[in-house]
Amino acid sequence: MKKGMVLACLALFVLFIAVGAYAQKAATGKQVVVEEKRPAEGLQDIKNPDKGFKVELWADKKDGNYKVGDEVAFFFKADKDCRVTLFNVGTSGNVQILFPNKFQKENLVKADKEYRFPAKEAEYLFRFKKPGGEDLVKAIATLDDVTLVAAADTKPQGEVKEVVKPQSALAKDVEIALKPVETRRWSEAELIVTVKE
Q1: Domain identity same for 76 and 116
Q2: What residues make up the domain containing 49?
Q3: Which end of the chain is more exposed for a tag (fewer CB within 10 A), N or C?
Q4: Sequential DSSP letters for 35-52
């Protein structure tokens, strides 16, 4: 009896929402989409469809296919002067901040200028490590000086920094840091590369 009552109440609630959406569509002539925004679970969930400027991101191999041990270079540019943070989520799940780094300490980039990681003049190479899988590279750019990752949440790892908290916690922190920023003042781009053993 109780189960039937709960199901009836649930069905009535869904019907109420549907009727309300239909009534709003009839009144305004616009389709109403009921969508619940869920918190980011990873950097790939941080999207900005209303961005006011463009960031491009690519790798030195157009097909994005690498082997463990291969050297790689990533490139990016933006069409406005902005501040860029370049993240790499490795196949192990660990997150590194590729840019800024030990050799490229300033994250302010100039409009339409191509940037490379690692920089040509850098004294190191960036190679893929085991295990094989997919690496996510994510660029987040802001027109304002926004701290996306607290210094206390990173540790040096050679020429780059490693984030010491899980990616899900990092994604929530980045989302919180971006929340007060007007959507037209930040942008993002991502790239997925495949790493084979």
Answers
A1: yes
A2: 43-196
A3: N
A4: -PPPPPSSGGG---TT-S
